[in-house]
């Protein structure tokens, strides 16, 4: 039969196969989950829970310190910066000097534990004993641990694993390796109880606090600071946080007082200087006013302007009046027959005289209408008119002199005021400069006086640097261990751990387990899967055998008939493998026992003359000649070689015989082919148990005699590379009509989930295995 052409297999992801590989290992997953969850429960049971404690501080944007006392100086161009940066304050909170004070106040350099069988319980606050370190002989030293025991009255013993026991008394100084301590008993100590005392170097405790005290600034604009600490004792963590905030405020108060004192000294010095400067400016102003006869330069300038304006108005009035008087004087120089202008706003006496004059003129003119100039009344009126006119002229002259004198005085006053006004700009410039210096000095003087009072108030009032919004409190849910994370994590780890291990094992595993593995790498046919057998099971097919092994070989015989050619002579089947230990001999023997019957006798030839194995299954009753003797001794007859199997009388066996020194030469001398040709007429089937192909070339010397080749691979033993070797042999035509037989297949086909059963309900009942053995079965 012509071997079908081999085609390279395209690798595809078989998701079902990949999943079934892991599902077959479910006992390991269950065991891993149980172990991981159990470990998690034990860890949660005996681990010491840690809780987070918090406190919140709020800062005012205006601090009562030097910055606030002089903050207004920024308006004068003096930049002093802002000292309440939250990040800077966070550094102060976590500073070593402050934490060192916390350690000293709370005696954190000494820890107390109540010793237990599995874990120790830490004590804090009201402890049965108190240990105080009076002095240190070493500044830095690792923690020192002592067990307090052997209590007899006031006497006790401190046990250290590395040092000898130390006996001491309560309330009595005791010298230890790092310094001197004193132990005080606070309450009755329980009999038989063990207390553990651990002494730390203070600097080491400070370093630990630096790492454990966490500072968070949730919102800089809100000026809030959150201080947190994670510890196993909430009351201890809260005490530490409260002490930290207390020391921080005390430190801020000390800084504030120190700065306030410095501010006070600064203000006093500045006041002294400003007072001297102000006194000098005031003296300069007084001297300038005395020299320039100035009381109020601005008022005097305004008064001069006002006087000049008023005097100018009066001057204009006087000049207008003088013009009237001159005009009136011209009228007065005329004859006595004309009336003179009146009501000109002149001197009342002059106006009265003019009015009388005009009345007399009018009366005389009326009289002249009835009388002559010689009339005594007219003569008397003329005489009075002439007299009044002379009085008017004199009055006008006097008035003119008075007005001219007033005009002269007004002109002098205007000139004087103009001189004053002309001096004002220069004097004002100098005066404003002096007043500016005076105002500045006065402003600084008053400002410093105000700030001195504010600073005095700051010194007398104790205001905390930061307000404690939330005193130290502890969250109810522990930070660690977190049950809601650890248990699911343990469950996940229980799944991932075996998954990772099996993934690596599967990744590194290059063995063949099932026919699916062969199909992925070869196009050759697969005739049967031989089930895996235990050492206690029978490895030979017996008469009337309905075991899984017998059923498998019956399937092999049935499938083999479709592979073998149709011929009148014996059909030759060669059974081979790549390496030793793959089960080719088991297949050869059981195939011969299964295929042989009364109507079709079978001959099994042990052709592996280097390492014969057939006798393991069907031992020779007596030592007789075998194939080796036939090959090198032509006198040996075939009849001398044949041995009838005790298991199946229809099956004959030719054993390999003695192991020769030159197997290759014997198998290739041509006598083997003559043996097959001779036996072909006597048997229906000839089964050849050949040598492994990869180890020796013996099998290739006799491969041409076979009508079909059964290539045996062993599940869980044979490697994938052996399939490539078999493919190459077929491709190079060194083997023909090749089919695979998979030996030692697990009932689950090596973990791939294919359950093979050949009994169809007729197989022998097997003892059920325990679940424990099933878990650890590979």
UniProtKB/TrEMBL annotation:
<keyword id="KW-0829">Tyrosine-protein kinase</keyword>
<feature type="domain" description="AAA">
    <location>
        <begin position="571"/>
        <end position="704"/>
    </location>
</feature>
<feature type="transmembrane region" description="Helical">
    <location>
        <begin position="485"/>
        <end position="508"/>
    </location>
</feature>
<dbReference type="InterPro" id="IPR050445">
    <property type="entry name" value="Bact_polysacc_biosynth/exp"/>
</dbReference>
<keyword id="KW-0418">Kinase</keyword>
<keyword id="KW-0472">Membrane</keyword>
<protein>
    <recommendedName>
        <fullName>non-specific protein-tyrosine kinase</fullName>
        <ecNumber>2.7.10.2</ecNumber>
    </recommendedName>
</protein>
<keyword id="KW-0812">Transmembrane</keyword>
<comment type="similarity">
    <text>Belongs to the CpsD/CapB family.</text>
</comment>
<dbReference type="Pfam" id="PF13614">
    <property type="entry name" value="AAA_31"/>
</dbReference>
<keyword id="KW-0808">Transferase</keyword>
<dbReference type="InterPro" id="IPR027417">
    <property type="entry name" value="P-loop_NTPase"/>
</dbReference>
<feature type="transmembrane region" description="Helical">
    <location>
        <begin position="26"/>
        <end position="46"/>
    </location>
</feature>
<dbReference type="InterPro" id="IPR005702">
    <property type="entry name" value="Wzc-like_C"/>
</dbReference>
<keyword id="KW-1133">Transmembrane helix</keyword>
<keyword id="KW-0067">ATP-binding</keyword>
<keyword id="KW-0547">Nucleotide-binding</keyword>
<dbReference type="InterPro" id="IPR025669">
    <property type="entry name" value="AAA_dom"/>
</dbReference>
């Amino acid at each position: 039969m012509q071997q079908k052409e081999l085609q390279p297999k395209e690798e595809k992801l078989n998701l079902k196969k990949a999943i079934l590989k892991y599902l077959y290992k479910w006992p390991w997953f269950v065991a891993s989950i149980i172990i991981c969850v159990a470990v998690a429960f034990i860890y949660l049971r005996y681990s010491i829970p840690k809780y987070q404690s918090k406190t919140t501080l709020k800062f005012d944007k205006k601090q009562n310190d030097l910055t606030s006392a002089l903050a207004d100086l920024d308006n004068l161009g003096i930049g002093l910066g802002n000292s309440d940066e939250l990040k800077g304050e966070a550094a102060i909170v976590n500073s070593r000097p402050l934490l060192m004070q916390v350690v000293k106040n709370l005696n954190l350099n000494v820890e107390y534990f109540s010793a237990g069988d599995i874990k120790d319980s830490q004590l804090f606050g009201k402890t049965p004993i108190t240990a105080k370190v009076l002095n240190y002989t070493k500044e830095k030293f690792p923690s020192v641990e002592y067990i307090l025991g052997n209590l007899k009255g006031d006497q006790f013993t401190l046990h250290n694993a590395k040092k000898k026991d130390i006996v001491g008394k309560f309330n009595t100084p005791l010298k230890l390796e790092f310094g001197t301590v004193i132990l005080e008993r606070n309450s009755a100590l329980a009999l038989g109880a063990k207390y553990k005392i651990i002494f730390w170097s203070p600097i080491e405790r400070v370093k630990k606090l630096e790492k454990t005290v966490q500072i968070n600034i949730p919102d800089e604009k809100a000026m809030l600071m959150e201080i947190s600490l994670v510890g196993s004792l909430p009351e201890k963590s809260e005490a530490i946080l409260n002490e930290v905030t207390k020391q921080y405020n005390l430190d801020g108060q000390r800084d504030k007082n120190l700065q306030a004192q410095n501010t006070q000294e600064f203000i006093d010095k500045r006041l002294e200087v400003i007072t001297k400067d102000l006194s000098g400016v005031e003296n300069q102003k007084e001297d300038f006013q005395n020299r320039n006869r100035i009381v109020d330069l601005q008022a005097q300038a305004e008064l001069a302007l006002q006087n000049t304006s008023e005097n100018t108005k009066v001057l204009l009035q006087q000049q207008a009046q003088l013009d009237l008087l001159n005009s009136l004087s011209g009228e007065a120089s005329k004859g006595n027959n004309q009336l003179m202008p009146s009501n000109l706003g002149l001197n009342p006496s002059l106006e009265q005289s003019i009015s009388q004059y005009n009345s007399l003129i009018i009366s005389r003119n009326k009289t002249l209408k009835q009388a002559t100039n010689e009339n005594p009344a007219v003569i008397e009126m003329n005489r009075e008119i002439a007299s009044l006119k002379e009085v008017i002229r004199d009055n006008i002259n006097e008035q003119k002199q008075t007005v001219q004198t007033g005009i002269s005085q007004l002109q002098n006053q205007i000139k004087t005021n103009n001189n004053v006004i002309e001096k004002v700009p220069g004097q004002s410039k100098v005066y404003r400069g002096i007043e500016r210096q005076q105002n500045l000095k006065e402003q600084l003087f008053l400002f410093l006086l105000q700030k001195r009072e504010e600073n005095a108030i700051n010194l007398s009032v104790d205001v905390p640097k930061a307000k404690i919004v939330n005193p130290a409190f502890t969250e109810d849910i522990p930070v660690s261990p977190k049950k809601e994370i650890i248990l699911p994590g343990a469950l996940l780890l229980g799944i991932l751990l075996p998954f990772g291990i099996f993934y690596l094992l599967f990744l590194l595993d290059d063995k063949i387990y099932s026919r699916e593995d062969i199909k992925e790498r070869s196009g050759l046919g697969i005739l049967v899967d031989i089930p895996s057998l235990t050492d206690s099971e029978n490895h030979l097919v017996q008469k009337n055998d309905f075991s899984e092994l017998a059923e498998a070989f019956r399937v092999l015989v049935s499938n083999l008939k479709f592979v073998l050619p149709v011929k009148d002579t014996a059909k030759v089947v060669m059974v081979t493998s790549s390496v030793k230990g793959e089960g080719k001999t088991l297949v050869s023997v059981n195939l011969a026992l299964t295929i042989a019957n009364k109507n079709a006798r079978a001959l099994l030839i042990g052709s592996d003359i280097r390492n014969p194995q057939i006798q393991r299954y069907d031992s020779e009753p007596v030592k007789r000649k075998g194939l080796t003797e036939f090959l090198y001794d032509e006198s040996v007859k075939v009849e001398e070689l044949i041995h009838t199997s005790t298991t199946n009388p229809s099956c004959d066996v030719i054993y390999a015989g003695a192991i020769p020194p030159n197997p290759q030469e014997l198998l290739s001398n041509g006598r083997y082919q003559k043996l097959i040709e001779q036996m072909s007429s006597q048997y229906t089937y000839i089964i050849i148990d050949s040598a492994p192909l990869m180890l020796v070339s013996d099998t290739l010397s006799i491969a041409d005699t076979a009508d079909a080749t059964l290539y045996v691979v062993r599940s869980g033993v044979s490697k994938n590379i052996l399939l490539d070797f078999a493919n190459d042999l077929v491709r190079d035509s060194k083997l023909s009509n090749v089919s695979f037989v998979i030996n030692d297949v697990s009932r689950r086909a090596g973990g791939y989930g294919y359950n093979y059963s050949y009994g169809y309900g007729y197989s022998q009942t097997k003892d059920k295995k325990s679940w424990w053995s099933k878990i650890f079965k590979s």
